[in-house]
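Quick one: structure for this chain?
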Amino acid sequence: MSLSGILVIDKPEGMTSHDVVRRVRKLLATHRVGHLGTLDPMATGVLPLCIGKATRIGRFFASSPKEYVGEIRLGFTTDTYDREGTSTSPGQPVLKTEDEIRQEMHGLTGNLEQTPPAFSAKKWGGVPSYKFARQGRPVDNVPVPVNVREFTMTAFRTPLLEFRVVCSGGTYVRSLAHDLGQRVGCGAHLESLRRLKSGDFTIEQSVALDRAGRSDVISIDSLLAAWPRIEVSHVAEDRVRHGNPINADVAPGFVRIFNKEGEFLAVALAESGWARPQVVLTSKASIRQGDAF
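Got it. Here's what it folds into:
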């Protein structure tokens, strides 16, 4: 049976998420690898990768919450909002007290309209904004709604501030660092970042890239375990394999369908006594027409 599941990599610094995907394709000898949410090259930590058939159900995995720890350097801004960028302001002293900075951090929690950095993957006409920025033609990205559940100081040694963030998917921690610098009045940028959690996947489940192997892949059969499990056989199994609905006496919502041998056949949506396959994980049927992935 082909390898399918989730591999949680502890991404090393200096690699893009796509670099990690390419490396894992070689390590596992499969082209069917995709990541669940990018990490900047400077960042380290949790990078979940879908392997094999799991690439087809990536949209069903929770993208939130994201949890990070890191450092912010107060005193000046950069064009990328992190230490790898070029300084865009003169050095300034930190005049606010530790308690005042904590209050400003609290002011950056809750439901926010956050503007992504010019150097980001946000697209303009299909082109990532960082490509325009590298050409000296930065664009003004449109603010997007995000939720920051927690943004707290864990240590402070001027000008370095250690922090913890718990936030929704799509939140730019670099932007939080930049915005904090504006509120404090001295400018700031992200010095380091480590992701500890992405959705249901944690740093405790992760493995170093240089030690990753097939045995580290979380089996596809154990994924989405919070959803109801339906077992089918014979006619019902054949219907599922061909993408057809089956009778199902379960509560409305997403369900997993398995055969009697324990093979994960499909993700289905249960409603009105029926389970309608949304993604069928066999070669006998494809994603239902009209379903985006």
